[in-house]
Amino acid sequence: MTTMTSPSVDDQTYTMLQEIMADEFGELVDFFRKDTQQGVDVLKICIDAGDSEQVGSICHKMKSSSKLIGAFRLAEFARLLEEYKTDQDQTRAQENWQSLREECADVMCWLDQQTATS
């Protein structure tokens, strides 16, 4: 049985944003990359410290920016981790952070490929 996996970023959403943003698109993607990677790093520190409020805030922002560029799986992992704000389940937060980190790496690779082919 063959399993098909979808790309880390939805091509149609990404292309539409590229058309809308025109000359500012590169700057937007650069900001997304920097902000998202920094957010992933800070999330680990906040989870380890039990700072569920900060985790919720970072994840809410990451969820929105991920949807904007078409990184829907990353947005879903951010949503799952955002639940830590209310459930404060440390074990689940660590697991969700790991999934979010892995998906973030996939998104960054996808973005690297787009840059290389542009």
Name the descriptors.
single chain; 118 residues; mainly alpha; Four Helix Bundle (Hemerythrin (Met), subunit A); 6 helices; elongated
Write a brief structural summary:
The chain is an all-alpha fold. It contains six helices and no strands.
Give the CA-CA distance, first to last residue. Answer: 34 Å
Query: Uncertain segments of ≥5 residues (pLDDT<50)?
Result: none
Main sheet: strands, sense, barrel: none
So what's the overall shape? elongated
Here the CATH topology equals Four Helix Bundle (Hemerythrin (Met), subunit A)
Computed structural class = mainly alpha
CATH architectural type: Up-down Bundle
Whole-number average pLDDT?
93
Question: What is the CATH class designation?
Answer: Mainly Alpha
Number of domains: 1
Number of strands: 0
Please provide the ordered H/E string of secondary-structure elements.
Answer: HHHHHH
Gyration radius, rounded: 15 Å
Please, how many helices? Answer: 6
Percentage of residues in DSSP E strands: under 5%
Helix content: over 70%
Polypeptide structure, described:
The protein has 6 helices and no strands. It is mostly helical. The chain has one domain (29-117): Four Helix Bundle (Hemerythrin (Met), subunit A) (Up-down Bundle), CATH 1.20.120. The longest helix has 28 residues, at 90-117.
